[in-house]
Amino acid sequence: MDFHLVGRSILAQQTPAKIFVDNQEQPKAMFAQAGHRYILAGDSEIDSFNLGIRKMFTNVIFPQAIAAGEEGFGIYYDSPAWEEKMDALLTGRETIHANREYYACKKLKQKWQDVMPEGFQLQMVNADLLANTNLKHLETLKEEMTSERPSVDDFLAKGFGVCAIHENELAGWCLSEYNADGRCEIGIETTSDFRQRGIATALTLAFLEYAFSHGINEVGWHCFKRNEASAKTALKAGFDKIYDYKYYIVPLKE
Predict the structure, then answer these.
(1) CA 20 to 30 Å from 28, out of 42, 64, 171, 229?
(2) The pLDDT of residue 191
(3) 64 and 133 together in one domain
């Protein structure tokens, strides 16, 4: 699962997580939670361990997530063998088995200045930016900063990002996720009024420029297979497709 950088980030103690194993001395199976991500890895045939996972979903995870108003979460796994166990682990709850793609980039291939449309300014996501409380969509940006981090301050201390500003409005942003071992993943969003203008490609290139000049050697990009726009942006920015994979979405609301 090395293309899921969350694992390296957890081991580097950069991402808070809960980790459960079947045996602390010689673990053969693992169940982990990092934010809205759950991870299954190792031997899928240990019945006692799987029963513990099932009880945790039933008695702890589902009640807490529903009480918190969460819409759902994702389950990642390291081999197809876990697919046969999923129905039992989740006590028959409805799931969506989704197709995903992974892209990676190790070299900057063009300049963001060549593709950024006129009328937009590039700015780093930092404390000075967040102090401008008149910026539209600032709260949405903060929500994104904490989607993989426990707090905004934690993101500012361990992550980085760039944003595009039009007049007094955030047009989009590109944020690092799971920074570890000279790698990071990318989280990107363009606000609705500014889509299909090339903003996402320009932001990605600016992000790559900063990343490669600040100790990052490889940047990863995950997207749904059906999200052709995301894949096209990755390819335009110089990413190469590496893997196809599946994961489970577990909805908590209709």
Answers:
(1) 64
(2) 87
(3) no
Contact between 215 and 248 under an 8 Å Cβ cutoff? The reply is: no
Same domain, 84 and 152: no
What 8-state DSSP symbol labels residue 78?
Answer: S
Is the pLDDT at 228 greater than 80? The verdict is yes
Q: What pLDDT shows up at residue 195?
A: 82
Q: What is the CATH number of the domain that holds 139?
A: 3.40.630.30
| Rg of the Cα atoms in the chain | 19
Same domain, 89 and 137: no
pTM for the whole structure: 0.91
CA distances from 187 to 42, 149, 160, 246, 254 (A): 28, 12, 11, 19, 26
Secondary structure (DSSP) of 110-145: S-GGGTPPTT-EEEE-SHHHHT-TTSBTHHHHHHHH
Q: Are 30 and 45 in contact (CB under 8 A)?
A: no
